Amino acid sequence: RPWRWAAIHGAFVLAASVANVIAWRLNEQTGRSLRQSELRFQRVFETSAIGMANTGLDRRFNAVNAAFCAITGYTEEELLQLTPNDITVEEDKARSTDAVLRLLNGEVQSVDIEKSYVRKDGEIVHVYNSLSGVRGPDGQVVGVAGVVQDITDRKRAEEALAHQAFHDTVTELPNRSLFLDRMALAMARGGRHHTMTAVLFLDVDRFKWVNDSLGHAAGDALLRGLARRLEHALRAGDTLARFGGDEFAVLCEDISGIDEAITVAQRLSAALAGPFMLDEDRAVTVTASIGIALAEATSDPQAVLRDADAAMYRAKERGRDRIELFDDEMRAYAMTRLETEAALRTAIEDGQLRVHYQPIVGLHGEHVVGVEALVRWQHPERGLVPPLDFIPLAEDTGLIVPIGTYVLTEACVTIARWNAQHSSRPPLSVSVNLSARQLGSPGLPQVVADALEESGLSPELLCLEITESVLMEDADTSRQLLDALRALGVTIAVDDFGTGYSSLLYLRRFPVDVLKIDRSFVTGMTADESDRAIVR
Fold it and tell me: pTM for this structure?
């Protein structure tokens, strides 16, 4: 019926009107939400503590926030006239450009890089850049958005740690690790350019005396003074390093030959002439022993350094304050020394060491009252190796410590057994030499106590011998150690008396029971009245 159709048509018109109203209100709400979202983003962008910057296809900045301006030192107006490359350090420009091109070309969606900016005031600031592509309505990349974080403090901390890892803390010179790294590079360059590389190993003479008598602060002041003088004496491009203690090394790259290396060494030696002022009132004069070794492109850096060290030790042995070259004779000696060291380690493990006993005869009655324990090496091929062929080496390498422990224990066990077998006779005493290395070990009193306990030897029958020069190297420490040993009940003897300090004042300070007068006085006492008077 007509009124029904009219009603239906009216309903449709009403529904359409309602739908239009709802759609209009929804569109208005959506638009309002978008505008609110944009405002929120704008506020975040402007107030963020992290730097933010956007660039367009022309790669110029088209938006920067206050934090980014603070990082770079430029105003917003200044930055909008620039590109990121305009404020990037030269060495980072290519890498930064490549990252942006990959974003603009759609190869990647985001990329993170570390780079450095040049601030407006000229200072360098290190930043962490997190970049992402900005896409338009059609999905095409229309720019790049960047979040920039200042990491300058972190980079400086990393650089400080790296510096500490590769530099000496006292002198600020490169340390052994950095020196060896530069040495390997120098030798490789020398191989390509057919040039020579020399290594100079320098040891300061009498440095220990400065440390011990004037204190470690004075020693450090001397080391810093040495470092500055040596640096000024070097050629441009040479590397000076401190290896620790009073040892320095010099890397001379691109030298014409051994004569030029000697010239450098002479210049270093001359640089040390004249007193070093440690403070307003104290000055010291020192010299240096220098060893030189030449390196080839195929050489092992450690081996070359060892050769220079060996040459330096020869300079020490020949009187100090001199320069020595590593030569074929020293190479043969060094090889023999290495072989001997390896064989000596095996000798300790395989039981090749023997203890021989030299009798001590009493002049009254001419009977044996004790023995001195002396270590010998029964080599399976070389036979009986003389002590001078391995004892100094054992001292240098530290092997003298296990050797000394073995000799001490073996001597105590043997003498205790002999005395038990001949109980009707007066008991024999035994003298055992202690090395500088053993005296430097805080556990020595316990080692002696263990040897006495294991053997059952009475403490008063054990005499520990220490050379006068070793005793005086560190008088205070030696006194403490001797007191600890005397507390065990053993006897203390000073060997080679008369060749070092020979001071009665020091004898009064130390708990010494026996003096072994150096043979240079004893052998002449029958013919020389002066020697006889000294011995008496």
Answer: 0.53
Q: Which residues pair with 283 in a beta bridge?
A: 277
**What is the distance between the alpha carbons of residues 510 and 515, in angstroms, rounded to a whole number?**
12
User: In the chain, what is the greatest distance between 2 CA atoms, to the nearest angstrom?
Assistant: 162
CA distances 439 to 16, 158, 480, Å, are 107, 41, 11
Number of helices and strands in the chain (H, E): 20, 19
Percent helix, percent strand, percent coil in the chain, to nearest 5: 50, 25, 25
- 51-56 and 110-118 as β-strands: parallel, antiparallel, unpaired? unpaired
Q: DSSP characters for 431-499?
A: EEE--HHHHT-TTHHHHHHHHHHHH---GGGEEEEEEHHHHHHTHHHHHHHHHHHHTTT-EEEEEEETS
- Both tokens of residue 280? 């307003």
Residue 406 has a pLDDT of 94
Say which residue the tokens 């060491």 belong to.
Answer: 353
Task: Count CA within 13 A, CB hemisphere, residue 300.
Answer: 4
Q: Where are the alpha helices (DSSP H) in 80-206?
A: 90-104, 152-166, 176-193
Tokens found for residue 477? 């420490």
Query: Would you say the C-alpha torsion 387, 389, 390, 396 has a positive or negative sign?
Result: positive
Residues 136 and 232: their CA atoms lie apart, in Å, by 63
Distance from C-alpha of 391 to C-alpha of 380, rounded to nearest angstrom: 18
The pLDDT of residue 32? 59
CB of 402 closer than 8 Å to CB of 348: yes
In contact, 162 and 219? CB cutoff 8 Å: no
Residue 481 Ramachandran class (φ > 0 left, ψ -120 to 50 alpha, else beta): alpha
Cβ-count burial 364-400 (b if 16+ within 10 Å, e if not)? eeeeeebbbbbbebebeeeeebeeeebbebbbeeebb
Mean pLDDT per block of 10 residues along the chain (536 residues) reads: 48 46 51 58 70 89 90 92 92 90 87 92 92 86 89 86 82 90 88 86 86 81 92 90 91 88 92 85 88 84 89 87 85 78 88 94 88 94 87 87 94 96 93 88 90 95 87 75 91 82 71 86 85 84
Q: Contact 183/304 with Cβ under 8 angstroms?
A: yes
Task: Show the 3-state SS of 186-219.
Answer: HHHHHHHHCCEEEEEEEEECCHHHHHHHHCHHHH
**CB 345, CB 321: distance < 8 Å:** no
